[in-house]
Amino acid sequence: MKYLVLLFLCISNFVFAQQEKTLNHKVIKGENIFQIAKTYNITPSDIYKINPGTENGIQENQILIIPNKAIILYDSKNTHQVQPKETLFGIARLYNVSVQDLDNSNTEALKDGLQIGENIVIPNKKKTLNGQARIINAETIFHIVASKETKYSISKKYGISIEQLETQNPEIINGLIEGNKLAINTKKIKPNNDNEELMIALAEKQAAIEKNKAKTTEIEDLQDKLTVQKQMNQKVLKVNSLKVNLNEIDETKGGSAKKLKLVLEANKNIQEILISKLDSLVVTMSDNLETLKNKDINDLEESKNLEKDSYKNISETNGMIIELKKDLADNRKIYTGLMTKVQRITLAENHEYKKKINENQKIKNNTSEDAELLEVIKNIQTKQEANEKRNKQLFTKIDSLGVQKNIELKRRISKATFYSSEARDYDDKLAQVKLKRYQNKAVETNKKLLDNSENKPTAEQIKKALKDHNYSQGKAVKIEILRNLKDIENGYYIIADTFSEAEPRDLLTRKLTDSGEINTGFFYNVNIFSYYVFTKKLKNANEALFEYNLKKENPLYKNMFIVQIEKE
């Protein structure tokens, strides 16, 4: 019996270990394999291996199996063994240290770039995680939020309170997001030095801010509010018992100053609602501007999302402003027409009153009522003038807030782009060093590669070849002009392909080198956030067209085009 129990425990442990080897990931709109692999700190190949068919593409809401590498809880290791395809930036992010500190700690080891299998020193300098104020020390472990996990289940798993989990990770106070990386300490956190004490204070302050945000409610969709207010406009007419279309009042069918006075009152109420919407829009735009000023942007991806959301919000806001201006203009047009009719009818009634005053003394009983009506109309005119002044002030404020938001948005995105590009430049330079070493080894192995690269046709030979072959009948040659790219020389470049990620870029550069293109290189186009892989830099358009036509049948150049670099 004892052996059976032991056997059962062994089997249970084995099954549990198997369950822990993977987790599921639900694909969201716009995601690709490279982004998912980056999120879980694995390679695309790791995903392809256990998800057959994904190399041909993935779809929204598809469930992917992610290897257990993704949920390893990293502690404060002193060294790290470099794995294939790893970058310095990726290792720095893995251990939550800066690229500069990692480089400074491994000056000698990194002089020739990262080497697979090499052990590099991890500095004991923790930074904040994902730019958020977090409590992190030597005992901190990290947990990636899986599908359907809750704050309760995570805190129970590690034997801590939800309050401690939120204090250490303030960004989850308003809800967990699948894929979030959480910092967790299973023991009570006690500061060992001034830095850790400051870390705790910052995290607690951030937690307080997030809790305060959770209590504050605001209408996020301005368009919904506009729809609600339009319904309120109709209620104004209903409350005043007016079954009349304000745009279609026909004076030829009769009417009285009393009835038109009621219509004016209804119109005035509608205008007040429009002004309240303007007020609400000013408050919302002010809040959005303040939120933007206080928002931390950690990397280029986040800045791109911010830019997309902000410009979408700006577009919606501009649409609302145009609609409000139109509504107010229509309202004023109606008011002006009605006021003209009121004045005309009032004059007619006064004339009729004077005509009959000697014939029927009973008219005197209506004198006070007419005087009251004239006073009401006068008050309406005064309020209309005040409303128009208020409208002008509000639109001036809205224009000012719009300008401020655009300035702040550009400043924040510029800052995020600077810090993100610094890390990318570092990785790119290392990749270029590795590529050059790869090309030198290729030349040492096969000297003919160097000879082939030096055999260039003369200008006359190129002109003759272009003249003899009527290339214009074939597929049109795409020529792109790029201006003022940093550190890129003027000239014509034969571009083999473009990439948004480093891994496929490096794969193609090696393939091109192996095919004999030992001058292959790449540069980054910051305008579209893409790498351009080129094989040659040429002096003029004729040379570029000649080279293009030599290569166009080669499968490696199926996406080939020409880029002209200019410095203004």
UniProtKB/TrEMBL annotation:
The keyword Nucleotide-binding is assigned to this record: no
GO-annotated molecular function: lytic endotransglycosylase activity
Keywords annotated in UniProt: Coiled coil, Signal
Domain of life assignment: Bacteria
Pfam families named among the record's database cross-references: LysM
Coiled-coil ranges (or none): 195-225
Signal peptide range: 1-17
Domain called LysM: residue spans: 23-66, 78-122, 141-184
Positions of transmembrane segments: none
Record protein name field: LysM peptidoglycan-binding domain-containing protein
Species in which this protein is naturally found: Flavobacterium psychrophilum
